[in-house]
Amino acid sequence: MKRLLLMSVVCTALMGCKTVPPPKPLDQLTPQEHAGYVLFQQNCAQCHYDRDTGSLHGPSLLSVYKKEYLQSGAPANDERITWTIQHGRGMMPPLGGQVSQDDIASILAYLKTL
Question: How much is the pTM?
């Protein structure tokens, strides 16, 4: 039993187990973040989880800005995420004509709270 526990501790240390902080509570969102939450629910939630792990139709966006890279391998930054929202990628349809630049800014602000 002690040997198994020791092996588990060593494996965890070698893998660099990293935890990320939980998302900001919904009742603490700023007005812009809340607007982004509403837009996310209207435009993104049918395919992406925001506060849960796992894949719906697209990848979960939980901790998306807390990682260096997106699941695609692209950098997890405003430029790349904005481009993906506007132009789509893979099965994700482009939303460029459906959301304004202000809407995208609000969505990004919300994603940063996850």
Answer: 0.81
